[in-house]
Amino acid sequence: MKKLKRSARLVEMTQYLLFRPHTLIPLTTFADRYNSAKSSISEDLAIIKEVFEEEGLGELNTLAGAAGGVKFIPKVAKSESLRFIQGLCKELEQPERILPGGYLYMSDIMGKPSVLNEAGKMFATAFSAQEIDVVMTVETKGIPLAYATASYLNLPVVIVRRDNKVTEGSAVSINYVTGSNKRIQTMSLSRRALKEESRVLIIDDFMRVGGTVQGMMDLLKEFRATVQGVGVLVESGEVEEHLVEDYVSLAKLSAVDPKTKQITVEPGNYFSKESDLS
Predict the structure, then answer these.
(1) Are residues 84 and 204 in the same domain?
(2) How far is CA 54 from the centre of its chain?
(3) pLDDT average, residue stretch 76-100
(4) pLDDT tens digit string along 18-41?
(5) Fewer CB within 10 Å of terminal CB in the chain, N or C?
């Protein structure tokens, strides 16, 4: 790349880092890329680091030594997240979202890139300190949310299927009990999709009792994998007890009254858990 002025270099470096989260980038990469001295690159990175932290965009960590470099860790301030979730709660409280049986229509929300982007960033913030190898979800509505989260963690996505597909080769299948209706269903995962002893982050769009999430956790035992965290976009607050105890929710569906068409949605436990950002 041709030699750039500092202002242009700062813009290009920032974009380079934003598109490579959780990736260690040696200083020589930038020095060679911009035909600049390492001392100049270090000064540029100091400016970017300051802006990232002041604006709540994340952290820029520096690792010293021959194998060192810089690593961008995306994060979002809780104040900004709260504004986003309050807007999402208001949108979810629209009376026309009530479906027969007291269910909540969310498919349109799961199709909005802006919502998925912010939610993925929040999950990446919540689990930034965890050692994770893959992000897992079950088909189908949770897939976009899992990919949004994985993009900020720079991780691959593993999708658990409702049934085994011939194109995925041999698979591990288990039966699990769904939440409130206690139905027995099946989920499967290709043996090639996940390495044994992987560290997994489970992401799902909605959790009523937690039967599906618990099913994924049981399935992971067959791979000797470790669950490093569970994140759900919306949890139901209308159940006495969830099957899964340790999880992060962004929003909580507290009440649905089909007769009065009233829905109550509030911020989830994401805002009551400790965070590095305020």
Answers:
(1) yes
(2) 23
(3) 95
(4) 999 999 999 999 999 999 999 999
(5) C
89 phi/psi in degrees, rounded to 5 = -60, -45
Q: Are 190 and 169 a contacting pair, CB within 8 Å?
A: yes
User: Which residue in this structure is represented by tokens 């270090």?
Assistant: 42
Backbone CA torsion sign across 76, 80, 81, 82: positive
Burial class of residue 107 (count of CB atoms within 10 Å of its CB; 0-12, 13-18, 19+): exposed
pLDDT in tens, 174-207: 999 886 667 899 999 999 999 999 999 999 999 9
pTM: 0.92
Q: Where is 123: in which H helix or E strand?
A: helix 113-126
Token pair listed for 126: 């919540």
Give the alpha-carbon dihedral of 268, 272, 274, 278, to 10 degrees: 90
Full domain range(s) for residue 132: 78-271
Shared domain for 58 and 158, answered yes or no, is no
Same domain, 29 and 141: no
